[in-house]
Write a structure and sequence with these properties.
2 domains, 8 helices, alpha+beta, globular
Length: 259
Amino acid sequence: MFITKMKIIQFLFRHRFMTLVLLTLGAIGPVLAADKAKAGLSMDQIKAKLEKSFDNVKFEKVLPSPQWPGMYEVVTESELAYTNADGSVLFAGQLIDTSTKENLSRKRWNDLNKVDVSALPLENSIKIVKGDGSRSLYLFSDPDCPFCQELEKELQGVSNVTIYTFLYPLESLHPQARDKANNIWCAADRVKAWSDWMMNRVLAYTDCQQSVIANNLELGLKNKVNSTPTLFFADGHRVDGKISKDELEVHLNLPVKVK
């Protein structure tokens, strides 16, 4: 995480995960007030100042925060942090909506990292058509990921969707996952092999010469897939983690804007 070379404001809140949560802005009011006298740095200058202080962190850009007036978003490869107008304070944590408990920081990062689903190499995915297949879901999934297995159970209740599953084994977490992904991809019936393993933990050994799994790993890194399952929907928006059938329906039914 970030090294404490600058003042870091941290509020600890234990919810489902150990995370840093902003419950009230009152505690940092003096910081924001002081910024007014020191403001004047451009976003590029703020970014350069942060990079000088945290040379082990890749900062992609700095943007005005639509969720936290007076503060700036600091976009990294995997999350958001926040800073003030002169880059003297870094808030390394998550903004949580206290009414809905929604993680606003994660939602915003996801919004900033949509993908062009039309550019995804669908030939490297397992295509499953349910019902009329009229809706689309693009899924990065690890065969040994328990949350991926739970998601597959939720997907059993969803119809009228075409699911494109990119096998995405995270070997650092699941050392055997790549071998299983290879077996599934090399099966004569990939749809059946995927379902047999994810639903029933049955996997027949098969092998073949292929580069699909390696290509999928490169594709995931390119699109900042840092965990599984990661879901992309027709408009390119993303959701991390297992979600319920009802949540899936909400995302699948969102209108797709015509470019």
